[in-house]
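Researcher: Structure for this, please.
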Amino acid sequence: MFPLFWNVSPQFFLPWSGSVRQDIELDRFFSAIPRSAGDGGVEEAAFKRASYGSQLGWITEVLLETMKDVPADEKSALGKLRLANADIQRLKLQRRYPAPAELSGELIADYLRTLRQQDSARYEAESRQLLQLLQPSQPLQPLQPVAGTVPATVAQGA
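Model: Predicted structure, token format:
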């Protein structure tokens, strides 16, 4: 049985309220770059060579290596860049080694090599903890969290 007002109940569709079909390709992105902003073809070729994230990572590495001896606090631009870089490197390591149950000696060694290059203060703190754990004759003391070493990294210019 049909409702009484079946024929007079209108259906309204506002813009973008129905199904939307969208073509998402990088070609459309690069061709949409206006001439005043740059050449889309060159941008596409550069992106195929190295992504924007890779390019920014290389620039960050060069800048931080050049400025490694310059002290900076957490509020300065250099300090913020150091903190952001340390966080990004930590996230990369967490993605690469997601579960502690999967760690082997080689993965731990690889982690420590990477950490020594990226964050020397945190490397020193974690090395001390690992050395303590590897000493069988000494009683174990509670491990201290290493997460608090990032501000020291900023001050030392990792």
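Researcher: Any notable elements?
Model: Residues 147-158 have pLDDT under 50 and may be disordered. The longest helix spans residues 77-96.
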